[in-house]
Specification:
The protein is α/β, with parallel strands linked by helices. It contains 21 helices and 30 strands. α1 runs parallel beside α2 and α18 packs parallel to α19. The chain is globular and about 75 Å long. Bound molecules: flavin-adenine dinucleotide (FAD). Flavin-adenine dinucleotide binds next to α13, β17, α14, α17 and α18.
Length: 637
C-alpha cells in the first residue's frame, strides 16, 4: 500500500490546527437561496467534512448587497446572515473538519441599494470580457473596504475558523492588484504598493474588527496569464508583502477567467501549475496551497514530499468523491470516484444552475440520494455495460438485489471506451476502470459477450429489468452514403476502420470534433463540415473554446453552415446558402449524431414485471445523465 505520510500530517495555519493537508477549495454551488444558507448547502458541506478533508472553504460569499450575485450564492453583508452561517459551521465542526469563509466580490456593483448593477473596476479599461467597465469612485472603494472587513467580523461571529479573501482570477480585488486593469492615478493605482492598497486596507480593517490573529488566507493568481498582468515574479513580491501584512496562508490560483489559456480542462496535465506554489513558497514562510488538476492523492503526496507546497487544494475531485481523503488514508485508491475534469460542474455553475457532477449523481443531492438496503431482494437484469448500466447494477447490488448485468461486447464501458480515445481525454478511462471495479466489488454477476433479446430476458424471469443499451450512429440518407470510402466516427475511434490521408468529417458536434482531433494527431489532413453556424455547439461553455483551440492549432479546416448533398468516391458535395462546393478527400467520416436504441425496451413492454430504461437508450445525452439515471433507478427498485 502506498503510504501517504505527508498528506496526513497536521499543520498550523496561523493559530488554526488542521488535521491533514487537504483543503476543499471554494466552489460556486448555487445551493444558497435568497443569499441564505440552505439545508442542501449544509448537507453538501457536512458530507465533505465527513469525507476527511481538513479545511473546507465556502464558495464565494458576498460582503455587499450592491453586487450582482449569481443565483444561489450566499451573503454576509448583514448580521441577519450570521445564524444561518453558524448552522453551516456547526455541521462541519460536528464532522471534525474546519471551515473558512471565502469572501469576495466579482465584477458588478450598483451605485446604491435598488439601483441597477453595472460592471465596475478600478479603471475603465476594456478586457476580453467586453466594453470598459465603470471606474469606481474613492468613496465606493472605502465602502468596499468596510464591507469586506464587516464580512470578516461576521464570519468570525458565525464560527468560521478562518477567512479567505478572493484576490485572484480577475475578480474585484485582483483588478486592483493587476497593472492590466488598474490604471488609476490616485493612491489606489500606479506602483505595486498603491495597487495593493485596497487589499491591504481590507486586511488591516479586518484584523481590527475580527482580531489580528484571526486566521486569514489570501487566494491569489500566481501568474495572471494576461497581457500586461502580473507574472509569477510580480506575484512573489505581492506574496511577501501579504505575509508582512499578517496573512497566514496563501492559496495559489492560475490565470484569470478571461485569460486565453486552458487552466482546468482535462487536456491540462495533472499538477501543471504546482510550480507557481513552489516558487511562491520560496519567498514566504506561511503555508502555501497548491491546486489545479490535482485529483490524485499520490500526486498530492509527491508535491508535499518534494516540498513544493504545504497544503493541497482540491475542488472538483471532492465534488466527485467527498470521501477521497478517507479512502486515500485507508489505501482504498480503487474506491475513489475519479474526477475526470470534464467541466460539467463548471458549466452548471456558469449557466446559473446548481452544481452537478457528471460522475457523482449524489453531489448536491446528498440528503435525497442515499443508498438504503432494499426492502426485499429482487432478481434484477441490467442490459448494457456502459456507464448507465454499470452504475445501476452496482448500486442495485449494493442495496441487496440479486443483479446480473449482460453486455454484448467482450468489455465493459460502452461509449466511455470511445470517449477516452482522443489522447487528451485519457482521464475518462479512469472512470471506466472505477465503474468496472465497483461493479465487480458489488457482487453483481457480469456476463460479457451476451447480446440478450427480449425473449431470452423473459425466459430468465427477472423481477425487474433495467435497459441501458445506449445508442447507435445515425446514417444520413444521402446519395453515395454506402460508398467504400465512408466510415462512422465510432468505427474510426474503435480502430475498426482505417482512413486515407485526406479526411472529411461530416458533422462538427462533440464526436466529430474529437474524431477530427484524433485523426489530426495521426497526421491526417482533416476538414470538418458542420451544418450549424458553430462547430462544437453541443460542447459545454468551459470546454468548447479549448476544443476549438486544439482544432485550430492542429490546422483542421472548419466549414460551417454546410449542407452535405452528396458523397462520391472523390469527396463531399455540399452547399452553403445556395452556393455549391466540393471538398476533395480520400475518406469521409460520418459524425452526424446517434439515435437511442429503443427496440429492446419496446419489445419488453408489458412482458416483464418491472421495466426501466436509462442513459442514451432513452435520449442521447452524456455521462452525467447516464450515471444519474443509473443511480436513481437503482435506488428506486
Ligand atoms: C465518441 C464519443 C465521445 C463521448 N465523449 C463524452 C464526453 O467527453 N463526456 C460525456 O459526458 N459524454 C461523452 N459521450 C457520451 C457518453 O459516452 C454517453 O452518453 C454514455 O456512454 C451513455 O451511456 P449508456 O450506458 O447509456 O450507453 P453506452 O455507453 O452506449 O452503453 C451501452 C452498452 O449496451 C450494450 N448493449 C447494447 N445492446 C445490448 C444487448 N442487446 N445486450 C447486451 N448489451 C447490449 C452496448 O454494447 C454498450 O456497451 C461520448 C460519446 C461518444 C460516442
Amino acid at each position: 500500500m502506498t503510504e501517504l505520510k505527508n498528506l496526513f500530517q497536521p499543520i498550523k495555519v496561523g493559530k488554526l490546527e488542521l488535521k491533514n493537508r487537504i483543503v476543499f477549495l471554494a466552489v460556486m454551488t448555487g445551493y444558497g437561496d435568497d443569499d441564505m444558507v440552505t439545508e442542501r448547502l449544509k448537507t453538501f458541506y457536512a458530507e465533505r467534512a465527513r469525507g476527511g478533508a481538513a479545511l473546507l472553504t465556502t464558495g464565494i460569499i458576498m460582503p455587499s448587497s450592491l453586487g450582482r450575485p449569481m443565483p444561489g450564492m450566499t451573503g454576509i453583508y448583514h448580521d441577519r446572515f450570521i445564524p444561518g452561517l453558524r448552522q453551516l459551521t456547526d455541521v462541519v465542526h460536528a464532522q471534525g473538519a474546519k471551515i473558512a469563509a471565502q469572501i469576495g466580490l466579482q465584477y458588478y456593483r450598483a451605485k446604491e441599494e435598488g439601483a441597477p448593477t453595472e460592471e465596475v473596476a478600478p479603471s475603465a479599461v476594456a478586457t476580453r470580457r467586453g466594453p470598459p467597465p465603470r471606474a469606481l469612485t474613492s468613496e465606493e472603494i472605502h465602502q468596499m473596504v468596510d464591507e469586506f472587513s464587516e464580512g470578516a467580523r461576521r464570519a468570525r461571529d458565525a464560527g468560521f475558523d478562518a477567512i479567505e479573501f478572493h484576490c485572484g482570477i480577475g475578480y474585484m480585488i485582483n483588478r486592483f492588484l493587476s497593472p492590466c486593469t488598474n490604471k488609476r492615478t490616485d493612491e489606489y493605482g500606479g506602483s505595486l504598493e498603491n495597487r495593493m492598497r485596497f487589499l491591504l486596507e481590507i486586511i488591516e480593517s479586518s484584523k481590527r474588527k475580527a482580531g489580528a490573529d484571526y486566521p486569514l488566507i489570501c487566494r491569489i493568481s500566481g501568474d495572471e496569464f494576461m497581457e500586461g498582468g502580473h507574472t509569477l515574479e510580480d506575484s512573489k513580491k505581492l506574496a511577501s508583502i501579504l505575509e508582512k501584512a499578517g496573512v497566514h496562508c496563501l492559496s495559489i490560483q492560475a490565470g484569470w477567467h478571461e485569460c486565453p489559456r486552458p487552466l482546468v480542462h482535462m487536456s491540462v496535465p495533472r499538477g501543471a501549475f504546482v510550480y507557481m506554489a513552489e516558487e511562491i513558497k520560496r519567498v514566504v514562510d506561511v503555508p502555501v496551497v497548491a491546486a489545479y488538476r490535482i485529483n490524485d492523492p499520490i500526486l498530492a503526496e509527491e508535491i508535499l514530499t518534494q516540498g513544493k507546497a504545504d497544503l493541497i487544494g482540491m475542488a472538483r475531485p471532492l465534488i466527485a468523491d467527498p470521501e477521497l481523503p478517507n479512502k486515500a488514508r485507508e489505501g482504498r485508491f480503487d474506491d475513489i470516484r475519479p474526477c475526470i475534469a470534464c467541466g460539467h460542474c463548471l458549466d452548471s455553475a456558469i449557466e446559473g444552475n446548481p452544481t452537478a457532477c457528471a460522475v457523482n449523481a449524489r453531489a448536491g443531492r446528498e440528503a435525497e440520494y442515499t443508498i438504503e438496503p432494499a426492502k426485499r431482494s429482487k432478481k434484477v437484469f441490467v442490459i448494457g455495460g456502459g456507464p448507465a448500466g454499470m452504475e445501476a447494477a452496482a448500486v442495485a447490488a449494493k442495496r441487496g438485489h440479486e443483479v446480473t448485468l449482460f453486455e454484448k461486447m467482450d468489455r465493459l464501458g460502452g461509449n466511455l471506451l470511445l470517449a477516452s480515445v482522443p489522447s487528451y481525454k485519457w482521464e475518462v478511462s479512469n472512470l471506466t476502470k472505477y465503474l468496472e471495479t465497483q461493479l465487480r466489488k458489488s457482487g453483481a454477476k457480469v456476463k460479457l459477450g451476451e447480446e440478450v433479446s427480449a425473449k431470452s430476458i423473459e425466459e430468465g424471469k427477472p423481477e425487474a429489468v433495467i435497459v441501458a443499451t445506449g445508442a447507435t450512429p445515425i446514417i444520413p440518407d444521402l446519395p453515395g452514403v454506402a460508398g467504400k470510402n465512408i466510415v462512422s466516427a465510432l468505427e474510426v475511434l474503435t480502430g475498426e476502420k482505417d482512413v486515407g490521408q485526406r479526411v472529411i468529417v461530416v458533422g462538427g458536434g462533440m464526436v466529430g470534433c474529437e474524431t477530427a482531433d484524433f485523426l489530426a494527431e495521426k497526421g491526417k489532413e482533416v476538414t470538418i463540415l458542420e451544418m450549424l453556424e458553430r462547430v462544437g455547439a453541443d460542447i459545454g461553455r468551459t470546454t468548447r473554446w479549448v476544443v476549438l483551440r486544439r482544432l485550430r492549432k492542429a490546422g483542421i479546416r472548419m466549414e460551417t453552415k454546410m449542407n452535405v448533398v452528396e458523397i462520391t468516391d472523390k469527396g463531399v458535395r455540399a452547399s452553403r446558402e445556395g452556393a455549391a462546393e466540393f471538398f476533395e478527400g480520400d475518406s469521409v467520416v460520418l459524425a452526424v449524431g446517434l439515435k437511442p436504441n429503443k427496440e429492446l425496451t419496446q419489445k419488453l413492454e408489458g412482458k416483464v414485471a418491472a421495466l426501466y430504461s436509462i442513459g442514451d437508450c432513452v435520449e442521447v445525452q452524456r455521462i452525467a445523465q447516464a450515471i444519474e439515471g443509473g443511480f436513481r433507478i437503482a435506488r428506486e427498485i
